[in-house]
Design brief:
Blueprint: E1 7-11, E2 17-23, H1 33-44, E3 45-49, H2 50-59, H3 82-93, E4 102-106, E5 111-115, H4 118-122, H5 129-145, H6 153-161, E6 175-177, H7 197-203, H8 208-225, H9 233-245, H10 251-259, H11 265-278, E7 282-287, E8 293-297, H12 300-322, H13 328-343, H14 352-365, H15 391-400, H16 409-412, H17 423-426, H18 428-439
Antiparallel strand pairs: 1-2, 3-5, 3-6, 4-5, 7-8
Helix pairs in contact: 1-18, 2-6, 3-5, 5-6, 7-8, 7-15, 8-9, 8-15, 9-12, 10-11, 10-12, 11-12, 11-13, 12-13, 12-15, 13-14
């Protein structure tokens, strides 16, 4: 028997019905096979820039910006030999015949997409085995293939690993995961929330609905990992996730379409409040002498899901019209301010989205101005407070940006774009829906 009575219909990024009557638990990060696979692939997948390694060794520019060893030049045909290197790397990191090791040549030899075997990742306490074994395997493959002597070998290592271990992470290196290293996580369970919004943009190839879904998956899987979806909060997070990220009951798509031509933040709020009244999620509790109506609800988690949709839809409408991501902080703020004023009920995530937006505005483009929306994540001191519901809207806004950011997705996440070769990461909406249908009779 399912734990919750809620059932949802799942739709794709074009408003097409994918699966009907899905039990809410079937989209849980700990149950849904596609979400579990996405998390597994996120931990196992590494991109290696063979083009970057070849250029670094040839020019002596190893270790990142401003660092060059003059007189160092090894002209090795690494890109040309990508297929041989890929085979060697696969053979090196494979644990046993038939395991899930995979190494794919991408971009005509410019990059490798390495998927380390699950066994390597599961046998460690952290998730970095894929990064370290891929870097080591590539280094060894180049040394052996080109008979690099002991005096030049450190430069090959430096071209692959960057400044590590002088730096905690691989600064200036040519091997990268979607995840940051554990030392950059600001608390227990923050790894999946510590992913740049721009990373989601390039992985899902700027398809805004799939960008939002991928960002929601990372955020919500992180919420489960950090213990914030336990007990009464499980249904609260699940409903918000399903409606905001997975287009449950087509509410997100239909609201954006309804307001897409001439809509505003206010018209989106009016649409969602109207739907909440029509669906009997909220009702008038009392009318004040002025005529102002105060609403109440018997289902706070479901009301929160509706406000989460309003926040995402308003972001798509407003930032989409602007063709710019910078409006996302004010959109998060005023969508929920209007919801509270219209209903007397709390905005998304009990006001934490609204509060996040205030600090976000300050840090992204006010007095401080430390970084644009594209370099934010759920691990950031400003955006961490709303767990699951704010950052996906930022990802959606960045996917709609037409180049107004100082930190564009292409600039911050160029290597990460290779992960768009993985279908489950590129198009999560369809994969999660299909997987939910597969397990709906088992939850």
């Amino acid at each position: 028997m399912p734990k919750f009575k809620d059932k949802i219909d799942l739709y794709d990024d074009k408003g097409k019905l994918l699966e009907k009557d899905i039990p809410l638990e079937a989209v849980s990060p700990v149950i849904n096979p596609a979400i579990r696979k996405i998390v597994n692939l996120t931990k196992r997948s590494v991109v290696v820039s063979l083009e970057g390694i070849e250029a670094a060794i040839k020019t002596g520019k190893v270790g990142g910006k401003g660092r060059q060893v003059l007189g160092l030049s090894m002209d090795l045909p690494i890109v040309k030999d990508a297929d041989k290197i890929a085979k060697t790397v696969a053979d090196t990191i494979r644990i046993s015949k038939g395991d899930d090791t995979a190494v794919k040549v991408v971009g005509g030899g410019k990059s490798l997409l390495v998927q380390a075997p699950t066994q390597r990742v599961e046998s460690g306490a952290e998730y970095v085995a894929s990064l370290s074994c891929a870097a080591s395997a590539v280094t060894e493959a180049i040394l052996d293939m080109y008979n690099v002597d002991m005096f030049s070998a450190p430069y090959v290592k430096n071209a692959v690993w960057g400044m590590y271990p002088q730096t905690m992470d691989l600064v200036g290196g040519n091997v990268k995961m979607i995840l940051e290293i554990p030392q950059k996580d600001e608390g227990v369970g923050y790894a999946l929330r510590n992913i740049l919004t721009n990373n989601c943009v390039v992985i899902a190839k700027r398809n805004t609905m799939n960008v939002a879904a991928l960002s929601c998956i990372f955020e919500q899987a992180g919420v489960w990992e950090m213990g914030d979806a336990v007990g009464p909060w499980e249904r609260y997070q699940l409903l918000g996730f399903a409606y905001q990220g997975l287009n449950a009951n087509n509410m997100l798509y239909s609201t954006v379409k309804e307001n897409g031509k001439n809509g505003t933040i206010g018209s989106v709020v009016a649409s969602i409040v109207g739907k909440a009244v029509e669906d009997k999620v909220i009702k008038v509790e009392k009318t004040l002498p002025s005529g102002y109506k105060l609403y109440t609800t018997d289902d706070i988690p479901l009301w929160n899901a509706y406000t989460a949709v309003a926040t995402m839809a308003a972001t798509m409408v407003n930032c989409g019209a602007l063709r710019g991501a910078q409006a996302v902080s004010s959109t998060l703020l005023y969508t929920n301010d209007l919801i509270e004023r219209e209903t007397g009920l709390p905005g998304c995530d009990f006001g934490k989205v609204e509060g996040t937006a205030v600090g976000f505005s300050f840090f992204s483009h006010s007095i401080y101005g430390g970084g644009g929306p594209g370099v934010f994540n759920g691990n950031h001191v400003v955006t961490r407070h709303s767990k699951g519901f704010a950052v996906p809207c930022v990802s959606a806004a960045c996917s709609l940006d037409a180049g107004t950011q100082m930190f564009t997705p292409e600039a911050t996440s160029g290597m990460i774009a290779v992960f768009g070769e993985i279908p489950e990461l590129r198009e999560p909406l369809s994969y999660v829906a299909k997987a939910a249908a597969e397990v709906k009779g088992k939850v």
